[in-house]
Amino acid sequence: MADPDATAWVLAGPDDAPDVTDGRLPRLLLPPTCYSQTAMSYMVKCHDRRGKFNAPAAVALGVEKRNFKYLAAGQSVTSTDGKTVTPDMVLGDPLPGSGIIVADVPSPDFVEAFMRRPEWKSKELMSHMVIMYWILGPALSSDSRILAFIHTHAHIKHVFCADDTCPNMVTHPGAAELLVKLRRIDPARFPLCEFDNSVSYPAPDEPSPLQLGRAGSTTTLMPRVINDTKPPAPFPDLLAPASDVAQNCLDLAAAAKAASEDPAFLARVEAEDGDLPNRDAEIIPLGTGSSVPSKYRNVSATLIRVPGLGAYLLDCGEGTLGQIRRALGRQESIQVLRQLRCIVISHLHADHHLGVVSVIRAWYSRCLADESSSSSSSSSPHSSTSPKTLAISCISRYRTMLQELSQVEDFGFHRLRFPNCSPTQGYRDRDVVNTDLDPTWSIQSITRIPVNHCWRSHATQLELTSGLRIAYSGDCRPCPAFASSCRGAHLLVHECTFGDDPSMQAHAVAKKHSTLEEALQVAREMGASRTLLTHFSQRYVKASCLKTTSSSSTCGGDDDEHRQNVIMAYDMMRVKLGQFQQAACFVPAVQALMESLGTHD
Protein backbone atom coordinates (compact mmCIF):
# COMPACT_ATOMS: atom_id res chain seq x y z
CA MET A 1 0.00 0.00 0.00
CA ALA A 2 1.16 3.56 -0.60
CA ASP A 3 2.26 5.71 2.33
CA PRO A 4 1.73 9.26 1.02
CA ASP A 5 3.29 10.93 4.09
CA ALA A 6 6.62 9.15 3.74
CA THR A 7 6.37 8.78 -0.05
CA ALA A 8 7.46 5.16 0.35
CA TRP A 9 5.97 1.80 -0.34
CA VAL A 10 5.09 -0.51 2.53
CA LEU A 11 5.24 -4.11 1.39
CA ALA A 12 3.63 -7.02 3.11
CA GLY A 13 6.12 -9.07 5.11
CA PRO A 14 6.11 -12.81 5.75
CA ASP A 15 3.87 -12.36 8.77
CA ASP A 16 1.33 -10.48 6.65
CA ALA A 17 1.05 -13.15 3.95
CA PRO A 18 -2.37 -14.72 3.58
CA ASP A 19 -2.95 -18.07 5.25
CA VAL A 20 -2.98 -20.51 2.32
CA THR A 21 -3.56 -24.17 3.10
CA ASP A 22 -4.31 -25.60 -0.36
CA GLY A 23 -0.71 -25.60 -1.61
CA ARG A 24 -0.95 -22.34 -3.55
CA LEU A 25 1.76 -19.71 -3.14
CA PRO A 26 0.61 -16.31 -1.84
CA ARG A 27 0.51 -13.60 -4.49
CA LEU A 28 2.45 -10.53 -3.37
CA LEU A 29 2.85 -8.01 -6.18
CA LEU A 30 5.66 -5.52 -6.56
CA PRO A 31 4.68 -1.87 -6.13
CA PRO A 32 3.89 0.05 -9.31
CA THR A 33 6.63 2.14 -10.87
CA CYS A 34 7.28 3.96 -14.15
CA TYR A 35 9.41 3.49 -17.24
CA SER A 36 13.10 3.84 -16.62
CA GLN A 37 14.71 6.82 -18.36
CA THR A 38 18.17 5.92 -17.11
CA ALA A 39 21.16 4.29 -18.75
CA MET A 40 23.78 3.00 -16.32
CA SER A 41 27.50 3.42 -16.88
CA TYR A 42 30.20 2.06 -14.61
CA MET A 43 33.64 3.12 -13.40
CA VAL A 44 35.63 0.26 -11.88
CA LYS A 45 39.02 0.60 -10.19
CA CYS A 46 41.37 -1.96 -8.70
CA HIS A 47 42.72 -1.45 -5.18
CA ASP A 48 46.11 0.19 -4.88
CA ARG A 49 48.93 -2.34 -4.79
CA ARG A 50 51.55 -2.19 -2.06
CA GLY A 51 54.97 -0.91 -2.98
CA LYS A 52 57.90 -3.18 -3.70
CA PHE A 53 59.44 -4.82 -0.63
CA ASN A 54 63.04 -3.69 -0.01
CA ALA A 55 64.67 -6.81 1.40
CA PRO A 56 68.19 -5.31 1.81
CA ALA A 57 66.72 -2.44 3.83
CA ALA A 58 64.87 -4.89 6.06
CA VAL A 59 68.04 -6.88 6.68
CA ALA A 60 69.93 -3.69 7.47
CA LEU A 61 67.27 -2.81 10.05
CA GLY A 62 67.76 -6.18 11.74
CA VAL A 63 64.54 -7.85 10.61
CA GLU A 64 64.62 -11.63 10.52
CA LYS A 65 63.61 -13.20 7.20
CA ARG A 66 60.73 -15.04 8.84
CA ASN A 67 59.19 -11.66 9.69
CA PHE A 68 59.34 -10.28 6.13
CA LYS A 69 55.82 -11.54 5.42
CA TYR A 70 54.37 -9.49 8.29
CA LEU A 71 55.94 -6.30 7.04
CA ALA A 72 54.69 -7.06 3.52
CA ALA A 73 51.20 -7.54 4.97
CA GLY A 74 51.33 -4.12 6.64
CA GLN A 75 52.21 -5.19 10.19
CA SER A 76 55.03 -3.80 12.30
CA VAL A 77 57.67 -6.18 13.67
CA THR A 78 60.49 -6.05 16.21
CA SER A 79 64.07 -6.24 14.96
CA THR A 80 66.82 -8.35 16.53
CA ASP A 81 68.00 -5.36 18.56
CA GLY A 82 64.51 -4.69 19.95
CA LYS A 83 63.54 -1.76 17.74
CA THR A 84 60.14 -1.48 16.05
CA VAL A 85 60.25 -1.65 12.27
CA THR A 86 57.17 -0.31 10.48
CA PRO A 87 56.07 -1.27 6.93
CA ASP A 88 56.77 2.20 5.50
CA MET A 89 60.45 1.71 6.38
CA VAL A 90 60.84 -1.21 3.95
CA LEU A 91 58.07 -0.74 1.37
CA GLY A 92 58.16 1.49 -1.68
CA ASP A 93 55.39 3.87 -2.66
CA PRO A 94 52.00 2.18 -3.28
CA LEU A 95 51.15 1.53 -6.91
CA PRO A 96 47.76 3.08 -7.78
CA GLY A 97 45.08 0.72 -9.03
CA SER A 98 44.09 0.94 -12.66
CA GLY A 99 40.49 1.19 -13.80
CA ILE A 100 38.04 0.75 -16.64
CA ILE A 101 34.88 2.56 -17.69
CA VAL A 102 31.85 0.91 -19.27
CA ALA A 103 29.70 3.58 -20.93
CA ASP A 104 26.19 2.71 -22.11
CA VAL A 105 24.79 5.32 -24.51
CA PRO A 106 21.74 3.71 -26.16
CA SER A 107 20.44 6.69 -28.17
CA PRO A 108 21.21 10.33 -29.04
CA ASP A 109 18.84 11.43 -26.26
CA PHE A 110 21.38 10.30 -23.67
CA VAL A 111 24.52 11.94 -25.08
CA GLU A 112 24.17 15.43 -23.59
CA ALA A 113 23.36 14.13 -20.11
CA PHE A 114 26.27 11.72 -20.37
CA MET A 115 28.70 14.51 -21.26
CA ARG A 116 27.50 16.67 -18.35
CA ARG A 117 28.34 14.06 -15.73
CA PRO A 118 30.75 15.54 -13.12
CA GLU A 119 32.76 12.32 -12.96
CA TRP A 120 34.55 13.14 -16.20
CA LYS A 121 36.12 16.23 -14.56
CA SER A 122 37.13 14.45 -11.35
CA LYS A 123 40.90 13.94 -11.26
CA GLU A 124 40.52 11.39 -8.48
CA LEU A 125 38.12 9.23 -10.47
CA MET A 126 39.68 9.65 -13.90
CA SER A 127 43.27 9.13 -12.81
CA HIS A 128 44.72 5.80 -13.88
CA MET A 129 41.71 4.89 -16.00
CA VAL A 130 43.21 2.90 -18.85
CA ILE A 131 40.36 1.75 -21.07
CA MET A 132 36.78 2.81 -21.81
CA TYR A 133 34.27 0.50 -23.47
CA TRP A 134 31.48 2.30 -25.35
CA ILE A 135 28.22 0.39 -25.79
CA LEU A 136 26.59 2.54 -28.44
CA GLY A 137 23.20 2.72 -30.09
CA PRO A 138 22.73 2.98 -33.86
CA ALA A 139 24.87 5.61 -35.64
CA LEU A 140 26.34 6.99 -32.40
CA SER A 141 29.84 5.87 -33.33
CA SER A 142 30.00 8.93 -35.61
CA ASP A 143 28.49 11.39 -33.12
CA SER A 144 30.73 14.49 -32.96
CA ARG A 145 30.20 14.88 -29.20
CA ILE A 146 31.45 11.38 -28.49
CA LEU A 147 34.42 11.81 -30.81
CA ALA A 148 35.27 15.10 -29.07
CA PHE A 149 35.14 13.33 -25.69
CA ILE A 150 37.58 10.72 -26.99
CA HIS A 151 39.92 13.45 -28.23
CA THR A 152 39.83 15.15 -24.81
CA HIS A 153 40.62 11.90 -23.01
CA ALA A 154 43.09 10.57 -25.54
CA HIS A 155 45.29 9.07 -22.80
CA ILE A 156 42.59 6.40 -22.36
CA LYS A 157 42.10 3.57 -24.82
CA HIS A 158 38.53 3.79 -26.19
CA VAL A 159 36.80 0.70 -27.56
CA PHE A 160 33.60 0.95 -29.62
CA CYS A 161 31.15 -1.91 -29.11
CA ALA A 162 28.27 -1.42 -31.54
CA ASP A 163 26.53 -3.19 -34.40
CA ASP A 164 28.04 -0.84 -36.96
CA THR A 165 31.61 -0.99 -35.63
CA CYS A 166 32.10 -4.65 -34.77
CA PRO A 167 32.12 -7.62 -37.14
CA ASN A 168 29.27 -10.09 -36.83
CA MET A 169 31.88 -12.80 -36.35
CA VAL A 170 31.43 -16.31 -35.03
CA THR A 171 31.97 -15.96 -31.30
CA HIS A 172 31.42 -19.62 -30.41
CA PRO A 173 33.79 -21.41 -32.79
CA GLY A 174 33.28 -24.83 -31.22
CA ALA A 175 29.58 -24.90 -32.08
CA ALA A 176 30.19 -23.39 -35.53
CA GLU A 177 32.90 -25.95 -36.36
CA LEU A 178 30.60 -28.78 -35.28
CA LEU A 179 27.88 -27.39 -37.54
CA VAL A 180 30.33 -27.27 -40.47
CA LYS A 181 31.26 -30.91 -39.93
CA LEU A 182 27.62 -31.94 -39.65
CA ARG A 183 27.02 -30.13 -42.93
CA ARG A 184 29.54 -32.46 -44.59
CA ILE A 185 27.34 -35.34 -43.43
CA ASP A 186 23.87 -33.92 -44.17
CA PRO A 187 23.90 -30.54 -45.96
CA ALA A 188 20.11 -30.47 -46.30
CA ARG A 189 19.61 -30.37 -42.53
CA PHE A 190 22.69 -28.43 -41.40
CA PRO A 191 23.10 -25.10 -43.24
CA LEU A 192 25.96 -22.76 -42.37
CA CYS A 193 25.33 -20.26 -39.61
CA GLU A 194 25.19 -16.57 -40.49
CA PHE A 195 28.32 -14.45 -39.98
CA ASP A 196 30.06 -11.46 -41.53
CA ASN A 197 33.67 -10.65 -40.74
CA SER A 198 33.64 -7.30 -42.53
CA VAL A 199 33.08 -3.93 -40.85
CA SER A 200 31.69 -0.88 -42.64
CA TYR A 201 33.06 1.56 -40.04
CA PRO A 202 36.43 3.00 -41.15
CA ALA A 203 39.42 1.67 -39.25
CA PRO A 204 40.99 4.31 -36.94
CA ASP A 205 44.29 5.82 -38.01
CA GLU A 206 47.39 4.72 -36.11
CA PRO A 207 48.28 5.81 -33.54
CA SER A 208 44.77 6.45 -32.25
CA PRO A 209 43.09 6.15 -28.85
CA LEU A 210 40.12 4.57 -30.63
CA GLN A 211 39.84 0.85 -31.20
CA LEU A 212 37.02 -1.19 -32.72
CA GLY A 213 35.75 -3.93 -30.45
CA ARG A 214 36.58 -7.49 -31.28
CA ALA A 215 35.68 -10.71 -29.48
CA GLY A 216 38.72 -12.14 -27.72
CA SER A 217 40.58 -8.86 -27.11
CA THR A 218 41.99 -8.57 -23.58
CA THR A 219 43.38 -5.92 -21.25
CA THR A 220 45.26 -6.74 -18.03
CA LEU A 221 44.86 -4.18 -15.23
CA MET A 222 46.92 -5.73 -12.44
CA PRO A 223 49.66 -6.26 -11.39
CA ARG A 224 50.58 -3.99 -14.30
CA VAL A 225 48.58 -2.65 -17.22
CA ILE A 226 48.98 -4.69 -20.39
CA ASN A 227 46.91 -3.63 -23.38
CA ASP A 228 46.57 -6.35 -25.97
CA THR A 229 48.45 -4.49 -28.68
CA LYS A 230 49.08 -7.62 -30.72
CA PRO A 231 47.06 -8.02 -33.91
CA PRO A 232 43.68 -9.54 -33.05
CA ALA A 233 43.36 -13.26 -33.40
CA PRO A 234 42.27 -14.33 -36.87
CA PHE A 235 38.62 -14.98 -37.47
CA PRO A 236 37.62 -18.61 -36.89
CA ASP A 237 38.52 -20.73 -39.90
CA LEU A 238 35.41 -22.72 -40.80
CA LEU A 239 36.98 -24.31 -43.88
CA ALA A 240 39.55 -26.39 -42.03
CA PRO A 241 36.98 -28.31 -39.91
CA ALA A 242 35.07 -29.21 -43.08
CA SER A 243 38.08 -31.16 -44.34
CA ASP A 244 38.64 -32.83 -40.98
CA VAL A 245 35.88 -35.44 -41.19
CA ALA A 246 36.83 -39.11 -40.98
CA GLN A 247 36.44 -41.08 -44.20
CA ASN A 248 34.22 -43.71 -42.59
CA CYS A 249 31.76 -40.93 -41.68
CA LEU A 250 31.76 -39.66 -45.25
CA ASP A 251 31.19 -43.20 -46.53
CA LEU A 252 28.20 -43.61 -44.21
CA ALA A 253 26.89 -40.21 -45.34
CA ALA A 254 27.19 -41.22 -49.00
CA ALA A 255 25.28 -44.43 -48.28
CA ALA A 256 22.61 -42.44 -46.42
CA LYS A 257 22.26 -40.01 -49.32
CA ALA A 258 21.81 -42.88 -51.75
CA ALA A 259 19.23 -44.53 -49.48
CA SER A 260 17.30 -41.29 -48.97
CA GLU A 261 17.10 -40.74 -52.74
CA ASP A 262 16.12 -44.30 -53.61
CA PRO A 263 12.86 -44.22 -55.64
CA ALA A 264 11.35 -47.11 -53.69
CA PHE A 265 12.12 -45.37 -50.40
CA LEU A 266 10.66 -42.08 -51.62
CA ALA A 267 7.52 -43.83 -52.87
CA ARG A 268 7.03 -45.45 -49.46
CA VAL A 269 7.55 -42.13 -47.69
CA GLU A 270 5.04 -40.47 -50.01
CA ALA A 271 2.47 -43.17 -49.31
CA GLU A 272 2.97 -43.01 -45.54
CA ASP A 273 2.99 -39.21 -45.35
CA GLY A 274 0.06 -38.58 -47.65
CA ASP A 275 -2.23 -37.51 -44.80
CA LEU A 276 0.44 -35.61 -42.85
CA PRO A 277 -0.61 -31.92 -42.65
CA ASN A 278 1.91 -29.15 -43.24
CA ARG A 279 4.69 -31.40 -44.49
CA ASP A 280 6.66 -28.25 -45.29
CA ALA A 281 6.60 -27.12 -41.64
CA GLU A 282 10.20 -26.57 -40.56
CA ILE A 283 11.55 -27.44 -37.12
CA ILE A 284 14.63 -25.46 -36.05
CA PRO A 285 16.15 -26.41 -32.67
CA LEU A 286 17.81 -23.26 -31.33
CA GLY A 287 18.94 -24.70 -28.01
CA THR A 288 19.13 -28.42 -27.22
CA GLY A 289 21.05 -28.52 -23.94
CA SER A 290 19.83 -28.54 -20.37
CA SER A 291 20.51 -26.26 -17.42
CA VAL A 292 23.26 -23.94 -18.75
CA PRO A 293 24.82 -23.16 -22.14
CA SER A 294 27.82 -25.27 -23.11
CA LYS A 295 30.45 -25.22 -25.84
CA TYR A 296 28.17 -26.99 -28.32
CA ARG A 297 24.58 -26.56 -27.08
CA ASN A 298 22.56 -23.57 -25.95
CA VAL A 299 19.64 -23.87 -23.52
CA SER A 300 16.09 -24.81 -24.47
CA ALA A 301 14.31 -23.31 -27.46
CA THR A 302 12.67 -24.89 -30.50
CA LEU A 303 11.30 -22.82 -33.37
CA ILE A 304 8.58 -24.27 -35.61
CA ARG A 305 7.77 -22.40 -38.82
CA VAL A 306 4.56 -23.39 -40.60
CA PRO A 307 4.25 -21.70 -44.02
CA GLY A 308 1.00 -19.83 -44.39
CA LEU A 309 0.22 -20.02 -40.67
CA GLY A 310 3.06 -18.64 -38.57
CA ALA A 311 6.02 -19.35 -36.32
CA TYR A 312 5.75 -20.96 -32.89
CA LEU A 313 8.40 -21.03 -30.17
CA LEU A 314 8.57 -23.87 -27.65
CA ASP A 315 10.39 -22.42 -24.63
CA CYS A 316 12.81 -19.56 -24.92
CA GLY A 317 16.04 -19.89 -22.96
CA GLU A 318 18.68 -17.20 -22.65
CA GLY A 319 20.25 -16.30 -25.98
CA THR A 320 17.33 -17.49 -28.10
CA LEU A 321 17.12 -14.23 -30.08
CA GLY A 322 20.83 -14.43 -30.86
CA GLN A 323 20.42 -18.04 -31.97
CA ILE A 324 17.58 -17.03 -34.31
CA ARG A 325 19.74 -14.35 -35.90
CA ARG A 326 22.79 -16.61 -36.11
CA ALA A 327 20.84 -19.51 -37.59
CA LEU A 328 18.68 -17.58 -40.04
CA GLY A 329 20.51 -14.35 -40.79
CA ARG A 330 19.27 -10.81 -40.40
CA GLN A 331 16.62 -10.75 -43.14
CA GLU A 332 15.12 -14.17 -42.45
CA SER A 333 15.06 -13.49 -38.70
CA ILE A 334 12.98 -10.39 -39.45
CA GLN A 335 10.51 -12.64 -41.26
CA VAL A 336 10.40 -14.99 -38.26
CA LEU A 337 9.54 -12.09 -35.96
CA ARG A 338 6.79 -11.02 -38.35
CA GLN A 339 5.42 -14.56 -38.40
CA LEU A 340 5.71 -15.21 -34.64
CA ARG A 341 2.32 -16.20 -33.25
CA CYS A 342 2.86 -17.97 -29.93
CA ILE A 343 5.54 -18.64 -27.30
CA VAL A 344 5.06 -21.64 -25.01
CA ILE A 345 6.68 -21.50 -21.55
CA SER A 346 6.64 -25.00 -20.09
CA HIS A 347 7.86 -24.12 -16.58
CA LEU A 348 9.75 -21.52 -14.60
CA HIS A 349 13.29 -22.87 -14.62
CA ALA A 350 15.51 -20.09 -15.94
CA ASP A 351 16.98 -22.10 -18.82
CA HIS A 352 13.50 -22.22 -20.37
CA HIS A 353 12.40 -18.57 -20.22
CA LEU A 354 15.24 -16.08 -19.70
CA GLY A 355 15.20 -15.20 -23.41
CA VAL A 356 11.49 -14.44 -23.61
CA VAL A 357 11.59 -10.69 -23.00
CA SER A 358 14.34 -10.17 -25.59
CA VAL A 359 12.29 -12.00 -28.21
CA ILE A 360 9.10 -10.12 -27.30
CA ARG A 361 10.95 -6.80 -27.43
CA ALA A 362 12.34 -7.61 -30.89
CA TRP A 363 8.89 -8.77 -32.05
CA TYR A 364 7.29 -5.55 -30.77
CA SER A 365 9.94 -3.37 -32.43
CA ARG A 366 9.32 -5.16 -35.72
CA CYS A 367 5.56 -4.63 -35.34
CA LEU A 368 6.05 -0.90 -34.78
CA ALA A 369 8.43 -0.62 -37.73
CA ASP A 370 6.02 -2.43 -40.05
CA GLU A 371 3.05 -0.40 -38.86
CA SER A 372 5.00 2.83 -39.32
CA SER A 373 5.93 1.90 -42.88
CA SER A 374 2.40 0.73 -43.69
CA SER A 375 0.92 4.01 -42.48
CA SER A 376 2.87 5.80 -45.20
CA SER A 377 2.17 3.12 -47.80
CA SER A 378 -1.20 1.42 -47.60
CA SER A 379 -0.05 -1.10 -50.18
CA SER A 380 2.62 -2.47 -47.83
CA PRO A 381 2.42 -6.29 -47.64
CA HIS A 382 2.72 -6.04 -43.85
CA SER A 383 -0.14 -3.57 -43.33
CA SER A 384 -2.94 -4.63 -41.02
CA THR A 385 -6.24 -3.14 -39.94
CA SER A 386 -5.56 -3.97 -36.27
CA PRO A 387 -2.39 -4.21 -34.17
CA LYS A 388 -0.73 -7.61 -34.04
CA THR A 389 -0.91 -9.65 -30.85
CA LEU A 390 1.30 -12.44 -29.55
CA ALA A 391 0.10 -15.42 -27.54
CA ILE A 392 2.10 -16.42 -24.46
CA SER A 393 1.12 -19.84 -23.12
CA CYS A 394 2.26 -19.72 -19.49
CA ILE A 395 1.03 -19.81 -15.92
CA SER A 396 -0.51 -16.70 -14.38
CA ARG A 397 2.51 -16.09 -12.16
CA TYR A 398 4.68 -15.62 -15.25
CA ARG A 399 2.13 -13.20 -16.67
CA THR A 400 2.43 -11.21 -13.44
CA MET A 401 6.20 -11.06 -13.81
CA LEU A 402 5.90 -9.72 -17.36
CA GLN A 403 3.31 -7.19 -16.22
CA GLU A 404 5.61 -5.93 -13.46
CA LEU A 405 8.54 -5.71 -15.86
CA SER A 406 6.42 -3.73 -18.32
CA GLN A 407 6.28 -0.91 -15.76
CA VAL A 408 10.04 -0.49 -16.14
CA GLU A 409 10.28 -0.66 -19.93
CA ASP A 410 7.83 -0.77 -22.80
CA PHE A 411 8.49 -4.08 -24.53
CA GLY A 412 4.93 -4.42 -25.84
CA PHE A 413 3.09 -6.03 -22.93
CA HIS A 414 -0.19 -4.48 -24.06
CA ARG A 415 0.12 -6.52 -27.28
CA LEU A 416 0.50 -9.83 -25.41
CA ARG A 417 -2.36 -12.24 -24.86
CA PHE A 418 -2.39 -15.03 -22.29
CA PRO A 419 -4.89 -17.64 -23.42
CA ASN A 420 -4.10 -19.94 -20.48
CA CYS A 421 -4.86 -17.20 -17.94
CA SER A 422 -8.59 -16.52 -17.61
CA PRO A 423 -9.24 -12.73 -17.52
CA THR A 424 -12.74 -13.28 -16.13
CA GLN A 425 -11.40 -15.19 -13.11
CA GLY A 426 -8.54 -12.97 -11.97
CA TYR A 427 -6.20 -14.46 -14.58
CA ARG A 428 -6.34 -17.86 -12.95
CA ASP A 429 -4.70 -20.68 -14.84
CA ARG A 430 -6.70 -22.86 -17.18
CA ASP A 431 -5.32 -25.90 -18.96
CA VAL A 432 -7.59 -26.30 -21.99
CA VAL A 433 -8.31 -23.38 -24.31
CA ASN A 434 -10.18 -23.65 -27.60
CA THR A 435 -12.18 -20.43 -27.64
CA ASP A 436 -11.42 -16.71 -27.70
CA LEU A 437 -8.23 -17.31 -29.66
CA ASP A 438 -7.06 -14.60 -32.02
CA PRO A 439 -7.61 -16.00 -35.53
CA THR A 440 -4.30 -14.48 -36.68
CA TRP A 441 -2.48 -17.02 -34.48
CA SER A 442 -3.83 -19.88 -36.62
CA ILE A 443 -4.30 -21.92 -33.43
CA GLN A 444 -7.39 -24.08 -33.02
CA SER A 445 -6.71 -25.04 -29.40
CA ILE A 446 -4.06 -25.03 -26.69
CA THR A 447 -4.01 -27.94 -24.25
CA ARG A 448 -1.74 -28.05 -21.22
CA ILE A 449 -1.09 -31.20 -19.20
CA PRO A 450 0.43 -30.97 -15.69
CA VAL A 451 3.64 -33.02 -15.53
CA ASN A 452 6.05 -34.18 -12.85
CA HIS A 453 8.89 -31.68 -12.70
CA CYS A 454 9.02 -28.41 -10.76
CA TRP A 455 6.09 -26.32 -9.47
CA ARG A 456 3.40 -25.77 -12.12
CA SER A 457 5.20 -27.56 -14.95
CA HIS A 458 3.15 -28.35 -18.04
CA ALA A 459 3.40 -30.25 -21.26
CA THR A 460 1.55 -28.53 -24.10
CA GLN A 461 -0.26 -29.44 -27.30
CA LEU A 462 -0.80 -26.83 -29.99
CA GLU A 463 -3.46 -27.73 -32.53
CA LEU A 464 -3.26 -25.42 -35.52
CA THR A 465 -6.15 -24.50 -37.78
CA SER A 466 -4.66 -26.70 -40.50
CA GLY A 467 -5.07 -29.72 -38.23
CA LEU A 468 -1.37 -30.00 -37.39
CA ARG A 469 -0.89 -31.12 -33.78
CA ILE A 470 2.38 -30.36 -32.00
CA ALA A 471 3.03 -31.99 -28.61
CA TYR A 472 5.77 -30.60 -26.38
CA SER A 473 6.82 -32.28 -23.15
CA GLY A 474 8.83 -29.49 -21.56
CA ASP A 475 10.89 -31.01 -18.73
CA CYS A 476 9.31 -33.95 -16.98
CA ARG A 477 9.28 -37.57 -16.00
CA PRO A 478 7.33 -39.79 -18.44
CA CYS A 479 3.68 -38.78 -18.24
CA PRO A 480 0.89 -41.21 -19.29
CA ALA A 481 -1.64 -38.36 -19.21
CA PHE A 482 0.47 -36.45 -21.72
CA ALA A 483 0.68 -39.49 -24.01
CA SER A 484 -3.07 -40.09 -23.89
CA SER A 485 -4.09 -36.43 -24.23
CA CYS A 486 -1.91 -35.97 -27.32
CA ARG A 487 -2.51 -39.37 -28.90
CA GLY A 488 -1.82 -39.30 -32.61
CA ALA A 489 0.15 -36.02 -32.53
CA HIS A 490 1.94 -35.29 -35.79
CA LEU A 491 5.06 -33.99 -34.03
CA LEU A 492 6.32 -34.81 -30.55
CA VAL A 493 9.18 -32.73 -29.13
CA HIS A 494 10.29 -34.60 -26.01
CA GLU A 495 13.05 -33.99 -23.52
CA CYS A 496 15.82 -36.59 -23.35
CA THR A 497 18.07 -35.39 -20.56
CA PHE A 498 19.78 -38.69 -19.82
CA GLY A 499 20.98 -41.66 -21.83
CA ASP A 500 20.12 -45.29 -21.16
CA ASP A 501 23.08 -45.98 -18.91
CA PRO A 502 21.56 -47.80 -15.87
CA SER A 503 23.45 -45.45 -13.56
CA MET A 504 21.43 -42.55 -14.98
CA GLN A 505 18.01 -43.98 -14.13
CA ALA A 506 18.14 -42.99 -10.47
CA HIS A 507 19.50 -39.61 -11.51
CA ALA A 508 16.57 -39.09 -13.89
CA VAL A 509 14.07 -39.93 -11.15
CA ALA A 510 15.77 -37.64 -8.64
CA LYS A 511 16.00 -34.72 -11.08
CA LYS A 512 12.53 -35.40 -12.54
CA HIS A 513 13.75 -35.81 -16.11
CA SER A 514 13.43 -38.53 -18.76
CA THR A 515 15.91 -41.01 -20.17
CA LEU A 516 16.25 -41.82 -23.85
CA GLU A 517 14.22 -45.02 -23.65
CA GLU A 518 11.53 -43.36 -21.52
CA ALA A 519 11.11 -40.59 -24.10
CA LEU A 520 10.80 -43.17 -26.87
CA GLN A 521 8.24 -45.10 -24.83
CA VAL A 522 6.11 -41.96 -24.50
CA ALA A 523 6.35 -41.56 -28.29
CA ARG A 524 5.14 -45.15 -28.77
CA GLU A 525 2.24 -44.74 -26.34
CA MET A 526 1.27 -41.47 -27.97
CA GLY A 527 1.56 -42.91 -31.47
CA ALA A 528 3.36 -39.75 -32.55
CA SER A 529 4.04 -39.56 -36.28
CA ARG A 530 7.36 -37.77 -35.78
CA THR A 531 9.54 -37.43 -32.67
CA LEU A 532 12.33 -34.95 -32.03
CA LEU A 533 14.50 -35.61 -28.96
CA THR A 534 16.07 -32.58 -27.28
CA HIS A 535 17.20 -31.10 -23.91
CA PHE A 536 20.29 -33.27 -23.43
CA SER A 537 22.37 -33.12 -20.29
CA GLN A 538 25.49 -31.05 -20.85
CA ARG A 539 27.50 -34.01 -19.53
CA TYR A 540 27.06 -35.44 -23.05
CA VAL A 541 29.50 -33.03 -24.67
CA LYS A 542 28.43 -33.80 -28.24
CA ALA A 543 25.78 -36.42 -27.39
CA SER A 544 28.11 -39.13 -28.69
CA CYS A 545 27.05 -41.23 -25.70
CA LEU A 546 23.39 -41.15 -26.78
CA LYS A 547 23.92 -43.70 -29.52
CA THR A 548 20.94 -45.97 -29.02
CA THR A 549 18.72 -43.62 -31.01
CA SER A 550 19.53 -45.34 -34.27
CA SER A 551 18.48 -48.76 -33.09
CA SER A 552 15.48 -47.33 -31.27
CA SER A 553 14.20 -45.03 -33.99
CA THR A 554 10.74 -46.55 -34.10
CA CYS A 555 7.40 -45.33 -32.87
CA GLY A 556 4.49 -47.67 -32.46
CA GLY A 557 6.27 -50.87 -33.37
CA ASP A 558 9.32 -52.48 -34.90
CA ASP A 559 7.99 -53.03 -38.40
CA ASP A 560 9.41 -51.04 -41.27
CA GLU A 561 6.38 -48.79 -41.69
CA HIS A 562 7.06 -47.14 -38.33
CA ARG A 563 10.82 -46.92 -38.61
CA GLN A 564 12.92 -43.79 -38.99
CA ASN A 565 10.51 -41.33 -37.37
CA VAL A 566 12.81 -40.33 -34.49
CA ILE A 567 15.74 -37.97 -34.79
CA MET A 568 18.00 -36.23 -32.31
CA ALA A 569 18.11 -32.43 -32.23
CA TYR A 570 21.26 -30.37 -32.71
CA ASP A 571 21.49 -26.62 -32.35
CA MET A 572 20.60 -24.81 -35.60
CA MET A 573 19.67 -27.89 -37.58
CA ARG A 574 16.66 -27.43 -39.86
CA VAL A 575 14.37 -30.33 -40.69
CA LYS A 576 10.98 -30.29 -42.36
CA LEU A 577 8.16 -32.37 -40.96
CA GLY A 578 7.83 -34.29 -44.21
CA GLN A 579 11.56 -35.11 -44.31
CA PHE A 580 12.02 -36.85 -40.96
CA GLN A 581 12.50 -40.20 -42.63
CA GLN A 582 15.14 -38.80 -44.99
CA ALA A 583 16.90 -37.14 -42.04
CA ALA A 584 16.82 -40.39 -40.07
CA CYS A 585 18.77 -42.11 -42.86
CA PHE A 586 21.76 -39.98 -41.80
CA VAL A 587 21.59 -40.92 -38.10
CA PRO A 588 24.33 -43.62 -38.33
CA ALA A 589 26.67 -41.20 -40.12
CA VAL A 590 25.97 -38.42 -37.61
CA GLN A 591 26.58 -40.76 -34.69
CA ALA A 592 29.83 -41.99 -36.22
CA LEU A 593 30.93 -38.36 -36.56
CA MET A 594 30.06 -37.65 -32.92
CA GLU A 595 31.96 -40.67 -31.71
CA SER A 596 35.04 -39.68 -33.71
CA LEU A 597 34.89 -36.13 -32.39
CA GLY A 598 34.30 -37.26 -28.83
CA THR A 599 37.76 -38.78 -28.70
CA HIS A 600 39.28 -35.30 -29.15
CA ASP A 601 37.43 -33.57 -26.29
UniProtKB/TrEMBL annotation:
<keyword id="KW-0540">Nuclease</keyword>
<comment type="similarity">
    <text>Belongs to the RNase Z family.</text>
</comment>
<dbReference type="GO" id="GO:0005739">
    <property type="term" value="C:mitochondrion"/>
</dbReference>
<protein>
    <recommendedName>
        <fullName>ribonuclease Z</fullName>
        <ecNumber>3.1.26.11</ecNumber>
    </recommendedName>
</protein>
<dbReference type="GO" id="GO:0042781">
    <property type="term" value="F:3'-tRNA processing endoribonuclease activity"/>
</dbReference>
<keyword id="KW-0862">Zinc</keyword>
<keyword id="KW-0819">tRNA processing</keyword>
<feature type="domain" description="Metallo-beta-lactamase">
    <location>
        <begin position="312"/>
        <end position="536"/>
    </location>
</feature>
<dbReference type="InterPro" id="IPR047151">
    <property type="entry name" value="RNZ2-like"/>
</dbReference>
<dbReference type="Pfam" id="PF12706">
    <property type="entry name" value="Lactamase_B_2"/>
</dbReference>
<keyword id="KW-0255">Endonuclease</keyword>
<dbReference type="InterPro" id="IPR036866">
    <property type="entry name" value="RibonucZ/Hydroxyglut_hydro"/>
</dbReference>
<dbReference type="InterPro" id="IPR001279">
    <property type="entry name" value="Metallo-B-lactamas"/>
</dbReference>
<keyword id="KW-0378">Hydrolase</keyword>
<dbReference type="GO" id="GO:0046872">
    <property type="term" value="F:metal ion binding"/>
</dbReference>
<keyword id="KW-0479">Metal-binding</keyword>
<dbReference type="GO" id="GO:1990180">
    <property type="term" value="P:mitochondrial tRNA 3'-end processing"/>
</dbReference>
